[in-house]
Write a structure and sequence with these properties.
Radius of gyration: 24 Å
Distance between the termini: 43 Å
Strand content: 15-25%
CATH architecture of the largest domain: 3-Layer(aba) Sandwich
Helix content: 25-40%
Structural class: alpha+beta
Shape: globular
Number of strands: 26
CATH superfamily of the largest domain: Vaccinia Virus protein VP39
Number of domains: 3
CATH topology of the largest domain: Rossmann fold
Length: 487
């Protein structure tokens, strides 16, 4: 037995003895003694990825290789500094993600303009950040997760990433087809599964799964898939994915939906884009599936060097008949958010222009946003939410813009980290000797600056121009306003 081989993994592999050769099974077992490579996707909302990856590699001693099927993504083979322990990671300049998890969102086309996108089982949020990037944050992402306990992690990830055309909801995904039939241009269903990826990690070690567990999950996966297909517009795209290689959770789920609703969707052949993948199965054990399931992608670990993954790109051909239901509703005024009046809007715009040289009217227009207020807080709210889902209760929406403090406007950390690179004024540069203590969350005493301390809010840069968040210039100190979760 290999050092990291477990009885649970051996049991899982035994199920595939009719599909995989002994050599292939041995190759998967050998992988268990090798750490899973670290993958990163750079945030094109906050940086120009090509020069940024060069800077990061030089600064932190990364040995990198591009992910050929995913734009702005790399594998880090070696590093002097862990990619999870940098200020750039905490500022949302990149997301750490197994390359296999980048495949599902990479399947979507980019042809649709300002699409409505549903992420049915979104937490922890990595694929939602990828959806934001693929739409350049000009579509609208409804990031949903049924588990209340997973919403805080989802919110943290999306807030750090800096998307603004988004809303987070917490509902059973099975309901969306009845609530919003023929509504979304794209839907991602990264379905809850056994996580039988055949490439265990410290966070997801190998464990025994039973036929009963797989079939229970299969029943839910079919419900979620049909719900998603109902919510998808005719002609729209849906990706079904799992991090399980179990056919009961993969081909069998798609086959059941095809049999229940023949002709309503087709599976697009995209194998030419992924040379390392294997086709989907058309049979497993005594089960026979539709021949079109060969168009699915099976990412076996020994072929990819990544975790095991399954995914398929579906095209909806015709509506699915169903009984529509009224979704949950809440009068938007109950949120306490109110659109700012013309005078206040003008004041906010003038302050950003005066303090930072930033014309936020351009941002409002380009991303179809409106400014709302609640008490002393200001928010950027997507018009797409108001146009399509204005009464749907949510857990989080848009982006905080800032708050009023002593008759001045303090920009929010998410807004600063998203657009700070566009500030023309209102910046302070700290020397390299202060960077470490700033990143650690400490104030800087007697900062070197020609500016007169007036309690003004400033974007903090280092000598290389890195965005280090917001500071407040007071007599004798630069107050550190990095939020605790970013420290």
């Amino acid at each position: 037995m290999l050092k990291n081989e477990s009885p649970e993994l051996k049991h899982s592999l035994d199920r595939f003895s009719d599909i995989l050769s002994e050599v292939e099974i041995e190759a998967i077992l050998i992988l268990q003694d090798q750490p899973l490579p670290t993958g990163i996707r750079l945030n094109q909302l906050k940086c120009d990825p090509q020069p940024t990856i060069k800077d990061l590699s030089t600064r932190y001693g990364w040995q990198i290789e591009p992910v050929d099927f995913c734009e702005n993504a790399w594998i880090i083979h070696e590093s002097d500094t862990s990619p999870g322990k940098t200020i750039e990671h905490r500022m949302g300049l990149y997301y750490l993600q197994d390359a296999a998890s980048m495949v599902p969102v990479s399947l979507f086309s980019t042809s649709s303009s300002n699409p409505l996108v549903l992420d049915m089982a979104s937490s922890p949020g990595g694929k939602a950040t990828h959806l934001i990037d693929r739409t350049e944050d000009k579509g609208f992402i409804l990031a949903n997760d049924a588990s209340a306990g997973r919403i805080p992690a989802l919110r943290s990830v999306l807030t750090t990433w800096g998307g603004v055309n988004q809303v987070i909801t917490q509902y059973p995904g099975e309901n969306f087809g009845r609530w919003f039939p023929e509504t979304f241009d794209r839907i991602l269903l990264d379905a809850p599964c056994t996580m039988e990826s055949l490439r265990p990690t410290p966070n997801h070690p190998a464990r025994s799964t039973t036929s009963d567990e797989r079939l229970r999950l299969q029943a839910r996966q079919i419900e979620l898939l049909v719900s998603g297909l109902c919510a998808l517009k005719t002609g729209g795209e849906m990706v079904y994915a799992t991090c399980s290689m179990a056919p009961e959770e993969d081909e069998a789920v798609l086959d059941a939906a095809m049999r229940a609703y023949p002709g309503t969707f087709s599976i697009k052949d995209i194998s030419d884009k992924f040379s390392f993948s294997a086709p989907g199965l058309t049979a497993f054990g005594d089960q026979r599936y539709s021949p079109s399931l060969k168009n699915c992608l099976r990412l076996w670990p020994h072929l990819t060097g990544m975790s095991g993954f399954f995914c398929a790109l579906l095209i909806k051909n015709e509506p699915i008949p169903l009984m529509a239901e009224t979704p949950p509703n809440r009068d938007f005024s109950k949120t306490g958010l109110e659109p700012v009046n013309e005078d206040l809007s003008k004041k906010i715009i003038e302050l950003f222009l005066k303090n930072f040289g930033l014309d936020i009217t351009e941002i409002l227009m380009e991303y179809h946003l409106e400014i709302f207020s609640r008490y002393d807080q200001l928010f950027l709210i997507p018009r797409a939410y108001k146009d399509h889902f204005s009464s749907l209760p949510y857990a989080y929406i848009g982006m905080p813009l800032g708050k009023w403090t002593d008759m001045d406007l303090e920009p929010s950390h998410p807004f600063i980290s998203r657009v700070g690179q566009h500030f023309k004024t209102g910046k302070i540069i700290i020397s390299d000797s202060y960077v470490e203590q700033w990143i650690a969350g400490r104030d800087i005493r007697h900062p070197e600056t020609a500016l007169s301390p007036k309690g003004q809010y400033l974007l903090v840069n280092d000598l290389s121009g890195r965005n280090l968040g917001l500071g407040r210039l007071l007599p004798k100190r630069l107050r550190n306003l990095l939020p605790r979760q970013s420290i």
